[in-house]
Write a structure and sequence with these properties.
This protein has a three-stranded antiparallel β-sheet with strand order 1-6-3, with no helix packed on it. A three-stranded antiparallel β-sheet has the order 2-5-4, with no helix packed on it. Helix content is 37%, strand content 16%. The chain has 213 residues and is an alpha+beta fold. The chain is built from four helices and six strands. The chain is elongated and about 70 Å long. Helix 1 packs across helix 2.
């Protein structure tokens, strides 16, 4: 089952406001962004020395997200020769960031093994985490639906107003439960870490909103 299909099954949108994949994609993207911060992926790459203190960062480096987890130099020793964090740093120059080794000068072509964190995509979700990520994405969808129902009413028809408010409350409660399932699975305190509420899925485009009487 794809992540979007999993999200659809959890949202259970019987209101018919979210009908196709484009309606769910923003929530899935937001959930993957949150999950990436909570449990980032790792990329290990060998970059070649250039005879200076500076070596290139791996091609998968994502500015604003990635960080260096470890630096191994020289490569191939047993036990491994990991450089302490005090011996390297990220240096940002006019041509972009590089990894600066403060004590080592790798010769030209000599490999430096660098491990960095990278964002996760659906295919990189850790085995066992898929359902939790689906819960998080579904929670964003439910929050969006709750907000849409709360903002939409026809004051001339009291029954509709009550119905909209009821739907809003139902989706808000469902979203809260789903988000808590994600936090519990990853062992995250709801009051700490990277708060789920700081990543919000966008509502469907204006011409796609089906909240009409």
């Amino acid at each position: 089952m794809s992540l979007i299909d999993l999200v659809k099954s959890k949202v259970k949108d019987d209101s018919g406001r979210l009908t196709d994949n484009d309606d769910y994609s923003p929530a899935v993207a937001a959930a993957l962004a949150k999950y990436s911060k909570d449990r980032p992926g790792e990329l290990v790459d060998d970059v070649n020395g250039a005879g200076t203190h500076d070596v290139d960062l791996p091609d998968g480096w994502v500015e604003g997200f990635s960080r260096v987890s470890s630096v191994e130099y020289p490569v191939g020793l047993v036990p491994e020769a990991y450089l302490p964090e005090r011996d390297w740093r990220i240096y940002r120059g006019p041509d972009g960031p590089v990894l600066r080794l403060l004590r080592e000068v790798p010769s030209i072509g000599s490999p430096v093994r660098v491990t960095i964190t990278v964002p996760r995509v659906e295919a990189d979700i850790v085995s066992g985490d898929l359902d939790a990520v689906g819960c998080l994405a579904a929670s964003f969808c439910c929050e969006t639906l709750a907000n849409l129902f709360a903002q939409t009413s026809d004051p001339t028809i009291a029954a509709d107003v009550v119905n909209y408010r009821t739907k809003s409350g139902e989706f808000a409660a469902r979203g809260k439960r789903l988000r808590q399932l994600y936090l519990d699975h990853l062992g995250i305190d709801a009051d700490g870490g990277f708060p789920a509420a700081s990543v919000k899925a966008s509502a469907p485009e204006t011409d796609r909103v089906r909240l009409t009487h």
